[in-house]
């Protein structure tokens, strides 16, 4: 810890409820191990951890454990894209086809099967803000609810990408598939941020890993964040719940992710990181785009990203499809790379309106609360993130300890 919790408005004993609640998950065999970090006004007020990064090896969770952060990659890709907006190289309203010509004439599904879809031309081009806000009409193969989802799976895009295809090839493949809806007309969690990563590559004229290193990771000193790590002893093992009992079981196939350079640099879910590194990223956001004298974005840009961009500032329940996402739909809108809390009563949460957040498929999560000067993050390795209500419980436990 950097500070006595009381100095930044927390009740220390109430914060210990975080430790007790999630330690119980570990002791019941529902999580392998976890690490949670709570900070306020830039100072770490509470760190909680319990259990193992590798259950079978008996290797405990350590402060420098490396985690697969999956979709917590998305905010980093979104920040990278916004650096190009700030430089005037692209506008939020620009059609992405100016840089990705494969999206010059997208078609939209209207009826039919995955094998024989009936489509119509898109009436609106996919624009940069559509990618950032998941309103592009793209989808994910793992949704399993729409014929276009099935078409993604048939093309080899479900929980990963086909072997041998780089990000450019994957983006061309997605462009050949129909959109689920007209761009800008709905919200749907999708490969949009992966396409955004490809757009960033084209704008920069270099691979996404180099863009991240030059524009975000290097300047912020995020030395343990990347698309893979050579320090595999520190990389946590990945687990799945056993059907019926939800007791954890190791998954070697997914566990190989992050141990070698991937074919496709996934801006939607490819990074590994540590709690210390991602803490620096959240503090940069909390401070309006700057940390330790290094400015990544301007404060007005961060504020725009953390605003609800859904038309009429409605929530995802009203505008989104009732599919898997990394947060609830009731009371939450969506900005440019983050969920945004609009209505705490509708969301049934103690969190503050204006909080922005996201999570990863292996049950990691973070949020930034500008009004309270607060950030929190949670790390573990359990797929999928919908297995336990970790995020809702962590918010409850953090905010019940905040006394001002």
UniProtKB/TrEMBL annotation:
InterPro entries found in the cross-reference section = Beta-lactam-related, Beta-lactam/transpept-like, Diverse_Enzym_Activities
Q: Which residues form the Beta-lactamase-related domain?
A: 18-396
Q: Which domain of life is it from?
A: Bacteria
> Would you tell me the protein name for this molecule?
CubicO group peptidase (Beta-lactamase class C family)
Organism name: Actinophytocola oryzae
